[in-house]
């Protein structure tokens, strides 16, 4: 009997002794067997790497390109509620049946002699690429999972490569040297193909890598820019370059509810694919783009998957003032390989009251450990809960209508809350 999607996902967890095993040799061999490397998976391919902002940049490119009539496929990770979120075609999550077909193709290819072991992420990436390659796409936008140079997504040669931001994250795999992290992320660049740099504070190693490849460099603040202020809530203007080098400007752009640096970067990357950006289509796309778990408001609750100090600092800057008589709570749960002290320090100036929650699993962090770190920085912790859901239950009777609650620290924290009705005072 054929496996269901749930059965395939469980099977994938058993295929490899390591959950993360960076390197391209194994996944490239299987991709060749599947015929994924012989022809482009779409007319144009954009790969997005970086520490923060990958998901936002990809979502905006997806929305804007579709608003211009392009057929777009997108691959991102991780997911929040359904694995299907990782692969979207024309703005829709793919059905279970297509993913099952893809995993069957991956399994057939990897079992050919000699048999090749794949991680969960590697098998999922190959399945996604197979789905996209068979969708007759104008554009494929691919998000790098971890790093860049040795990430499974990097078996694809992108027509345009983007690096959004560089900060410390995944230290167990990428280390703590920002310059070296930049080199890893810049591994998605290709000779003579555009490299779009989405931050003004990237380490020099990123641009140097592109220059060494003779890849044209398009840097935020130089080749392209935007007029938005720090708050980013007013209409803004984007200035950039077309693929032929002509200047272009688009006015009256709405706040997409996502970082404007990422929106400007997305527009420049699309321009580099040869897409002619039309103001009305671009404005409409930015007004409608949605990305769950990124500054997502559900009544009094703000849900954000930020899990490193850079993301937490952005959150702290963007949180609106708490209404008079209210408290700004944080419900926080983090994995044990994340910089909890840095995240707490970034959020602390905006948070009056904390609830810590335990995340289970091999990488989970106990709520009590988070609480110790918060109190060490002078924060007030009201409760340690065994799970994000239990943290919500604790808060429910304490809230008044003026309170606001930020739920953050991990995809796992936000996913648990998205699956649960959130109490409103």
TrEMBL record:
GO terms for molecular function: dihydrofolate synthase activity; tetrahydrofolylpolyglutamate synthase activity. Its EC number is 6.3.2.12, 6.3.2.17. Functions in two distinct reactions of the de novo folate biosynthetic pathway. Catalyzes the addition of a glutamate residue to dihydropteroate (7,8-dihydropteroate or H2Pte) to form dihydrofolate (7,8-dihydrofolate monoglutamate or H2Pte-Glu). Also catalyzes successive additions of L-glutamate to tetrahydrofolate or 10-formyltetrahydrofolate or 5,10-methylenetetrahydrofolate, leading to folylpolyglutamate derivatives. Signal peptide: none annotated. It comes from the Bacteria. It catalyses: (6S)-5,6,7,8-tetrahydrofolyl-(gamma-L-Glu)(n) + L-glutamate + ATP = (6S)-5,6,7,8-tetrahydrofolyl-(gamma-L-Glu)(n+1) + ADP + phosphate + H(+); 10-formyltetrahydrofolyl-(gamma-L-Glu)(n) + L-glutamate + ATP = 10-formyltetrahydrofolyl-(gamma-L-Glu)(n+1) + ADP + phosphate + H(+); 7,8-dihydropteroate + L-glutamate + ATP = 7,8-dihydrofolate + ADP + phosphate + H(+); (6R)-5,10-methylenetetrahydrofolyl-(gamma-L-Glu)(n) + L-glutamate + ATP = (6R)-5,10-methylenetetrahydrofolyl-(gamma-L-Glu)(n+1) + ADP + phosphate + H(+). SUPFAM superfamilies: MurD-like peptide ligases, catalytic domain (SSF53623), MurD-like peptide ligases, peptide-binding domain (SSF53244). Belongs to the folylpolyglutamate synthase family. Pathway: Cofactor biosynthesis; tetrahydrofolate biosynthesis; 7,8-dihydrofolate from 2-amino-4-hydroxy-6-hydroxymethyl-7,8-dihydropteridine diphosphate and 4-aminobenzoate: step 2/2; Cofactor biosynthesis; tetrahydrofolylpolyglutamate biosynthesis. InterPro entries: Folylpolyglutamate_synth, Mur-like_cat_sf, Mur_ligase_C, Mur_ligase_C_dom_sf, Mur_ligase_cen. Keywords: ATP-binding, Folate biosynthesis, Ligase, Magnesium, Metal-binding, Nucleotide-binding. Pfam families: Mur_ligase_C (PF02875), Mur_ligase_M (PF08245). Residues 48-193 form the Mur ligase central domain. The gene is folC. Residues 293-411 form the Mur ligase C-terminal domain. This is Dihydrofolate synthase/folylpolyglutamate synthase. Gene3D superfamilies: Mur ligase, C-terminal domain, Mur-like, catalytic domain.
């Amino acid at each position: 009997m054929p496996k269901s999607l749930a059965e395939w996902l469980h099977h994938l967890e058993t295929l490899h002794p390591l959950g993360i095993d960076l390197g391209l040799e194994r996944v490239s061999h299987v991709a060749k067997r599947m015929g994924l490397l012989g022809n482009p998976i779409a007319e144009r391919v954009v790969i997005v790497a970086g520490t923060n902002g990958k998901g936002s940049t990809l979502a905006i490119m997806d929305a804007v390109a579709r608003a211009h009539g392009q057929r777009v496929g997108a691959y991102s990770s991780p997911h929040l509620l359904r694995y299907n979120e990782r692969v979207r075609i024309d703005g829709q999550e793919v059905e279970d049946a297509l993913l099952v077909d893809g995993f069957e193709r991956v399994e057939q290819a990897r079992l050919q002699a000699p048999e090749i072991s794949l991680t969960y992420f590697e098998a999922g990436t190959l399945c996604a690429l197979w789905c996209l390659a068979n969708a007759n796409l104008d554009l494929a936008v691919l998000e790098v999972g971890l790093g860049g140079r040795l990430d499974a997504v990097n078996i694809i040669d992108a027509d345009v490569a983007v690096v959004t931001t560089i900060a410390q994250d995944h230290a167990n795999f990428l280390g703590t040297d920002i310059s070296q992290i930049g080199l890893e992320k810049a591994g998605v660049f290709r000779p003579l193909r555009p490299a779009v740099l989405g931050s003004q504070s990237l380490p020099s190693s990123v641009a140097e890598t592109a220059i060494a490849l003779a890849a044209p460099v398009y840097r935020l603040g130089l080749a392209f820019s935007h007029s938005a202020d720090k708050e980013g809530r007013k209409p803004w203007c984007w200035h950039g370059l077309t693929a032929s080098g002509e200047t272009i400007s688009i006015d009256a752009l709405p706040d997409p509810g996502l970082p404007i640096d990422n929106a400007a970067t997305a527009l420049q990357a699309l321009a580099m694919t040869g897409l002619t950006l039309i103001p009305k289509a671009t404005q409409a796309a930015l007004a409608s783009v949605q990305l769950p778990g990124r500054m997502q408001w559900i009544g009094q609750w703000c849900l954000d998957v930020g899990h490193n100090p850079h993301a937490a600092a952005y959150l702290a800057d963007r949180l609106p003032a708490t209404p008079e008589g209210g408290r700004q709570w944080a419900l926080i749960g983090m994995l044990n390989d994340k910089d909890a002290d840095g995240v707490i320090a970034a959020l602390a100036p905006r948070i009056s009251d904390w609830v810590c929650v335990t995340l289970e699993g091999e990488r989970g962090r106990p709520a009590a450990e988070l609480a110790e770190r918060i109190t060490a920085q002078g924060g007030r912790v009201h409760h340690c809960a065994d799970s994000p859901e239990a943290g919500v239950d604790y808060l429910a009777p304490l809230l008044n209508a003026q309170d606001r609650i930020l739920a953050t620290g991990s995809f796992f924290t936000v996913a648990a809350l998205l699956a649960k009705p959130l109490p409103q005072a």
